[in-house]
Amino acid sequence: MEKVSEFFLSKVLNQNVYDELEDNIGRLFDIYVTTEQGYPRVIGYKIKKGREIFNYEFRNIDICKEDKGLVLRVRGVKDIIPRKFSYLLSKHLLNKQIVDVNGKKVVKVNDLTMNKIGGEIRVVAVESGIIAATRKYKLDGIIRFLYDILGKKPRENSITWESVQSLEMVADSLKLTEPYGKLTKLHPADLADILEGLDTEARNKIFESLDKDLAADTLEALQPEIQADILSTINNLRAQEILDEMPNDEIADILDEMKEVDAEKILLNFNKEDEEEIRNLMEYPDEVVGSIMNKDFISFNVNITASETIEILRELKPEDEVIHYIYIVDEDEKLQGFISLRNLVLSAPVQKLKDIMDDKVIKIKDCQDIEDAIEVALKYDLISLPVVDLDEKLCGIVIMNDIIEELLSPRWKRKLKKII
């Protein structure tokens, strides 16, 4: 009889359990664990004997390798009442979805690696793949043999528990000390990739747990149809809280993908000014500059001074991407010129913007094709490009980063088809 310290959960489930008197007390039905101290620690066992199921803990347990396979030999059998903060490995984890935080992907739990360390049994890794999935049916040997014949290796995936984030929040049973905490440390783009691999229920559970800033950044990185699905199914107040952190041009793109009735519900929650701006953006055809322009730009009147402009900028604390160039307009909001932030800082404080601006401003109209904006920005090596309407009024800016993101997005693939 050989004692083993490391084993798979699938290899011990439904195996016989013997006490110190060699009496068979039943078969292992499931295992209670707690995650209070990192790696899930075994704190109890469900044992099935006939049609009855008992909850036990053991003073000592050995996993033994015998001719007929693994058996469990225990001492000090004691009835227990399951603790509220425990959960069951087979019921609550096997065949459920988890996230491999390091691999940044969703995987299905096909099996678990367990280890006896210092008298305690803990879950140390999650197993997924065809070998793990067939192990409980005792078909893993046949699968390996078939792969050998084909000259291939079966895909196996072992993920240490520290790299795992459970997605299954089971009411009153599975209570993680920091729900989805590992996911919140991921980059929004990686988190978006993970969310896209989940069903609506699991996706929304995670999304609603994010703080509004991370939720907004993640929403921007998602596929258009996923964006629409999330906003259509989560709480309206939560949706509004997240959208308030996003620029109106991005909101317009998302609402364009939603059913009209759902989009209208969301629009009605905005203040009148933002609602009107978003509606105007949604009216632009997909292939024109107006559909991707950023409305969060900064402009100043020609008659204010350099020092006044700098003071206003300090108060506004604008995003880096919108202060590469400062645009200057007249009383009618018509574009008159621009000045770089560097030149503004180097100017005499009392000088008016009209005296220090460059009036040879390169611009594009909101009704022109996006391709035109790309050509102009590349030709003149511009980081951002002012957008004017037919009356020469400044109505937005196009940022090169936004154009690149748009070209790489699934939404643009549909736009290209329309343009071509």
UniProtKB/TrEMBL annotation:
Q: Which GO terms describe its molecular function?
A: magnesium ion transmembrane transporter activity
Q: Provide GO CC annotations from the record.
A: membrane
The record's listing under InterPro entries reads:
CBS_dom, CBS_dom_sf, Mg_transptr_MgtE_intracell_dom, MgtE_N_sf, MgtE_transporter
Report TM segments: none
Keywords in alphabetical order: CBS domain
Per UniProt, residues of the CBS domain are: 293-356, 357-414
Alphabetized Pfam families for the sequence: CBS (PF00571), MgtE_N (PF03448)
SMART domains recorded: CBS (SM00116), MgtE_N (SM00924)
Q: What is this protein called?
A: Membrane protein
Source organism of the structure: Clostridium tagluense
